[in-house]
Amino acid sequence: MTGTRKELTRTDLTPLSRAALGRAPTAVTRIRGGSKKGVYRLVFEDGTTAVAYVWSPDEDLWDAGPGDPRDPFSHASGLALFTAAADRLAAAGVRTPRLLHADPTHTHLPADAALVEDLPGGTLEDLLAAAPQALERMAALLATLHSCTGPSFGKVAVVDNSGSSYGSSCEELVVARALSDLAELPARDPRAAEAHPRLADAIRALAARVRPRDEPPVLIHGELGGDHVRVTADGDLALIDIEGLMYFDVEWEHVFLRLRFGRNYDALRTEHLDDDRLRLYRLAMHLSLVAGPLRLLEVGDFPDPEFMRGIAEHNLGEALTLLKNAS
Prior knowledge:
The chain is α+β, with helices and mostly antiparallel strands. The chain folds into two domains: about 10-115, Phosphorylase Kinase, domain 1; about 125-325, Aminoglycoside 3'-phosphotransferase, Chain: A, domain 2, CATH 3.90.1200. About 45% of the residues lie in helices and about 15% in strands. It has helices at about 10-20, 80-90, 125-130, 135-145, 155-160, 170-185, 190-210, 250-260, 275-300, 305-325, and strands at about 25-30, 40-45, 50-55, 100-105, 110-115, 155, 220, 230, 235-240, 245-250. It has a five-stranded antiparallel sheet, with helices on both faces. A three-stranded antiparallel sheet has the order 6-10-7. Strands 8-9 form a two-stranded antiparallel sheet.
C-alpha cells in the first residue's frame, strides 16, 4: 500500500449503518489504531454511538494480502476470523463488543465490514493509572480465557471448523517463525547482522530444552496488551482486536503480557508455566517485534513511524541482552 489511507466518510458508512440499525449517522470519526482494519465511531442524532470495522486492503497498513489461516501466525485480518473469534469468546463467557451487523458479501462497502457496539469507557491501559484494582478483573478474565482448551493448536476459525494447522507443535511453529524473522534482520540492521549466527544458535539451543507437552492448547488472544481491553459502562472488561484468537501454548500469551504490562505483570502471573517455553518464546517474541515493525515501515503507511522504530529498537536491544546474558 502506498500513499495515505483514504478515510471513509458518513456517506460511505451510511448504508452499513442503515442495514444494522435502520438509521444514518450524523458524524463519523476514525478511531486511532487499527493497522489491519479501519475502525470508525458512528455518532447518531440521539447521542448514541456504534463502531464500524472495515477490512479493506486500503485500510490494511501491512499490505500483506489475505493470510493462510492454517498458519496460526499468518496475517490475522478479516470478517471470518472476527466472527469465529467473537462466537468462541461468547461461548467462553469472555466479553467482546456485541456484533450488530456483519456484511461478508460486500453489499454496503467494497470490503468485509461489521458494525459493533461502542464501548466508550476507555481502555484498561487508560484505567490502570487511576484504578490499579482493575488488574484483578484482568486476572479473572485471563483465568476464564485460558481455562478453555482446544483439540489442537491453531486459529479458532480453523480448529473450531475441524480444520488442521501447519506444523506439529506450538514450539516448532515458534522456532520456525523466529528463524524467519531473524533472517530478515541482517539487511536492515548491522547489529542484527553481526549477532545473527549467535541468535540463530540461541533459538535452537532454547528449543532443544523444550520437552513435548501432553496438555491441550488453551485459548489465547495473542496480542493482549492493555490497549486491546476496553472497559464497559458497568466496569466489565471486553477484548477487542480479536481476529488473532487461537488455541496455543499459554506461555506465548504470558510473554506478551509481561512485555506490555511491565511492572503490573506480577498481578497477572500464574503458576505452572513452563520456564523453558517462556525463555524460547521471549526471545522469539522480541525478534518478532523487531522484524514486524521494520517490515511495516517498509511496506506500509504507518502514521507514526518513529513510534514503530522505537518498538523495533527496544526489542532488538532486549534480544541482544538476552543473548549476552546467555553467553
